[in-house]
Amino acid sequence: MLDRKFILENMALMKANIANRGMAVDVERFAALEQQRRDMQKQLETMRAEANALAKNNALSVDERRTRGGELKKMEAELSARIAPLEADIESIYVAIPNLIYAGSPLGGEDASKDIARGKQPLPKFDFKPADHITLMENLQMLDLVAGAKVAGSGFYYFTNMGALLELALTRFALDHVMKSGFKPVIPPDLARDSLMQGAGFVPRGNESNTYHLEDSDLNLTATSEITLVGRYADEVVDLTKGPLKVAGISHCFRSERAHGSATRGIYRVHQFTKTEMVVVCLPEQAEALHLEMRRLEQEIFDALEIPYRVLEIATGDLGAAAFRKFDLEAWMPMRGGKGDWGEITSTSNCTDFQARRLNIKYRDNSGKLQFAYTLNGTALSVCRAMIALVENHQQADGSVRIPLVLQPYLSGMTHIRKE
RNA sequence: GGAAGUGUGGCCGAGUGGUUGAAGGCGCACGCUUGGAAAGCGUGUAUGGGGUAACUCAUCGCAGGUUCGAAUCCUGUCACUUCCGCCA
Q1: CATH label, A4-94, candidates 1.10.287.40, 1.10.340.30, 1.10.720.60, 1.10.1760.20
Q2: Residue A45 Cβ under 7 A from any strand B atom
Q3: Residue pLDDT, tens place only, A147-176
Q4: Which positions of chain B lie under 7 Å from any protein Cβ?
Q5: How large is the ipTM?
Q6: Rounded to the nearest 10 degrees, how much is the dihedral formed by the CA atoms of A316, A317, A319, A323?
């Protein structure tokens, strides 16, 4: 979230910002209610000041204090009762107010996102009729969608044999790669409390929720380890004097939403997947360079996997509420939509201090003052999407799949996945 | 799962319902001392909101309650510790 005072002092900016994101948040109402609340709060504090002074005043008898104190107490209670619902209204608008936007982000909706770079690998040319990932993987006994549906429902799957090993190989390869740039490995919980989900900025647009909630508890299956990796530092003063905190987490991600249709066949959109995620907590002046570093690492990973991709500078209307600036990598998936299409494989966001303010993550600056830290996140590798791109791009005429060189050490030196 | 105990400023730790936002120590900052350092001595050192300021309000895990007055009493909740049970 943004600073309340900042919002009140920059109303024009707030309105433009919300419009650019294509959102509807009534900041006017926020300002009006907030002003009302402040006036009432001042009254309340005046009463409290008198009550405090009274309680400390030994010159008065206990009876005298009791009489006036009782009156004040009643008045305070009445006023508080009027402030509470007001505060609730204010809060509901406040949490919906999105982060500011990077000046260079293209204006507009999803279609306005700008194609700013390409990976090293050219688009594949097949001299045979290529198959989609479902056919390929089922033939190679790597994937069992039917069993997934039977056991857990549509949107779940089994990775079997080389499928299982490939998940581990991809995950470990991505982790190793980002570790070379100083990211420390972490395996976080796959569940998180309600408070943390909200804190991390997962304010579902409208009332749609993308997460599984555990009945009779305040726990949720996490949709991304960003929640647990950043949430780990909630309510803490982090030490940034030895450089930014850089962590890479491996976790399962659970998402309850699922659109249907040919674009989502197979394992493109599933309820559970494994992801290696990067998270950074840093000083404001370090954030941009680290954001670009994460993007570079993502590109290096997919260049190494010999998967063609493009890099998008995400448009204002497609940024998450917490994101100030965001890049996506979209891999070429030769059979997506029947004739090939780009599909999102990674995403990296600079959340500035928006997320840290909500989670109360601070650092001490040079003058010793507490300041909100900046947080960033980026996908190193999300297994299902990477797997689709890998098998579809590296498929051979005989139905086997070529294993890119960098992955071979993680698969006992195998060069191809073949039918047994 | 059962029982008992504990949660206090960056850290450790005291705290009788009534100037306690909180003793003391560590750490940190500044100063004195020194040829320089260490030691020693002195001073300062929680966070957030409102106000030009004086000042004021809130905060002792969290949420409620009792009271003129709560860190202190009560209820709930979360976390940690110890013991028992169970378990990979």
Answers
A1: 1.10.287.40
A2: yes
A3: 999 999 889 999 999 999 999 999 999 999
A4: 10, 18-19, 47-50, 56-58, 67-69
A5: 0.83
A6: 50
